[in-house]
Write a structure and sequence with these properties.
alpha+beta, 15 helices, 21 strands, about 25% strand, binds adenosine-5'-diphosphate
């Protein structure tokens, strides 16, 4: 039984985890950096421990400090949230070796899926469609690289095998840029992910980003909790997500069954997201995430299932309490990520929020740690809240989101609220005529011209 959880994260997701723990009568321990003393979940947790100075490498990425926090508070489990150490197999291994429960899959699985090249190999083994020639390791031999690229065919995309958050990704349209971009991605990969392994795959120029949410108990049971559409992105990073996706129900069945099979066969334990690109009625696997996703609320809204609660139950060794045929999907949900950023250049906009007002009404959910007089620090991701709407169909979900965005007041720092409003008003968005290039090529260029 899990009795006390260390929440090894910050911001909205830490608060999100805390809320479920309280509901389940599980004690909570927050760990925080010196600049985060006033975070909402720190103030609300049963116990709190400072784990270091603001820089993430000295606090939220400080493995010994987090494990010590579990020791001294006699906690028996650690929830990693998303980002930070959530997909660090070394962390989960050390958590397990120290005698604590890691809320997520075992370290071997995290390692296997954390390397996109090995994840692709596994998916291929189970018949999951991947992009053409996509695991050709790039080496120092320029001629060889040109041959690999030619075989795949331009345009192609170069990515870090250990990438995340849209970093260390470059699109190559012709052979003249290949060498230059290989070098850049290798360097970025080393800088962001401490590993130089990169790979190339075919670039899809009008794809949708569709992901399949699976939950699996490691005891032979896996359930499909619906899909999500995360096509609206900027610089390969999601900014607005929806559930269900715009793909026909019948087209999802086969791919969802394959994903479930993978989970059952590899003894997968926990929440798993299979990310795909979808173009010309075909799915192509790009990566698997072994943790709770930022966009999990849209799945919760259309299924009524608390995903954090299910994660905790599975980590406690319980079997899945529901079967596939007991899952009912209802309505439509949209999530707008609210970032503290400057609208003209998307640079972070930290500072004190002097006035805050949350939106409300039927079908509106606001997942955020901010409050009046809270200061957004410069040190972390610029996500300060997630506005989630729900309605009986997409049209209603859009209308409620528009109302909610217009009610949301965050003063004295800059945010992307206006950008989200513009997206929701856009005709192509309303009609579902979108691809991952929607924002950059069509929309942002227009905004830039106006402003
Ligand atoms: P990360 O792990 O950094 O999020 P992903 O591999 O999940 O990287 O890709 C992030 C985004 O980059 C995708 O949602 C998509 O917009 C774009 N992308 C990745 N691979 C391709 C590809 N082969 N073709 C077109 N776009 C791609």
């Amino acid at each position: 039984m899990i009795k006390k959880i260390v929440i090894a994260n910050r911001g909205e997701i830490a608060l999100r985890i805390l809320r479920t723990c309280k509901e389940m009568n599980i004690k909570t321990v927050s760990v925080y950096s010196t600049i985060d003393r006033e975070l909402k979940h720190v103030l609300l947790s049963d116990e709190s421990i400072c784990i270091g100075p603001p820089r993430a490498e000295n606090s939220y990425l400080n493995i010994p400090a987090i494990i010590s926090a579990a020791e001294v508070t006699r906690s028996n489990a650690i929830h990693p949230g998303y980002g930070f150490l959530s997909e660090n197999s070394n962390f989960s291994e050390q958590v397990e070796k120290s005698g604590f429960i890691f809320i997520g899959p075992n370290s071997k699985t995290i390692k296997m899926m954390g390397n996109k090249i090995s994840a692709i190999k596994i998916m291929k083994k189970f018949g999951i469609p991947c992009l053409p020639n996509n695991i050709s390791k790039i080496n120092k031999n320029e001629k060889e690289n040109l041959k690999i690229a030619e075989k795949i065919g331009y345009s192609l995309i170069i990515k870090s095998a250990h990438g995340g958050g849209g970093k260390a990704i470059k699109i190559v349209h012709s052979k003249k840029d290949l060498k230059k971009y290989i070098k850049i991605v290798k360097e970025e990969s080393k800088r962001f992910f401490n590993n130089r392994t990169i790979y190339i795959e075919k670039y899809l120029d009008s794809a949708k980003h569709i992901e399949i949410q699976i939950i699996s108990d490691g005891k032979g049971n896996a359930v499909f909790l619906g899909d999500r559409e995360c096509t609206i992105q900027r610089n390969h990073q999601k900014i607005l997500e929806e559930a269900p996706s715009s793909i026909e129900e019948s087209e999802k069945v086969e791919i969802a069954e394959l994903c479930k099979t993978v989970c059952v066969e590899i003894g997968y334990k926990g929440l798993g997201t299979f990310e795909f690109l979808y173009q010309d009625k075909k799915f192509f696997f790009i990566e698997m995430n072994t943790r709770i996703q930022v966009e999990h609320p849209v799945t919760e809204m259309i299924t009524g299932i608390d995903l954090v609660k299910e994660q905790i139950k599975i980590a406690s060794g319980k079997k899945l309490s529901f079967k596939q045929n007991s899952i009912r999907f209802f309505g439509h949900s949209i999530e707008c990520r609210i970032n503290a950023e400057k609208p003209n250049n998307f640079q972070p906009s930290p500072g004190k929020i002097t006035r805050f007002h949350a939106p409300g009404g039927l079908g509106i959910r606001w997942d955020s740690h901010i409050y009046t007089n809270y200061s957004v620090p410069i040190f972390y991701d610029s996500l300060i809240g997630k506005l989630i709407s729900f309605g009986e169909n997409r049209k209603v979900a859009i209308a409620r989101m528009q109302n909610a965005l217009s009610e949301l007041v965050i003063e004295n720092i800059e945010t992307n609220i206006n950008l989200q409003m513009k997206i929701l008003r856009n005709k192509n968005f309303k009609n579902g005529r979108i691809s991952t290039n929607f924002l950059n090529s069509e929309f942002l260029e227009k905004i830039n011209k106006i402003t």
